[in-house]
Amino acid sequence: xxxxxxxxxxxxxxxxxxxxxxxxxxxxxxxxxxxxxxxxxxxx
Length: 44
What we know:
Blueprint: H1 2-19, H2 22-42
């Protein structure tokens, strides 16, 4: 089950990266990292 979820996630990720511009992808990654840092600092 975990293997199929990994393959599905990789397939969806590849399709997503193919459709979004490089600049937007970098922004999404930065936003995700900032959110993860804020949650870490908040103790969640």
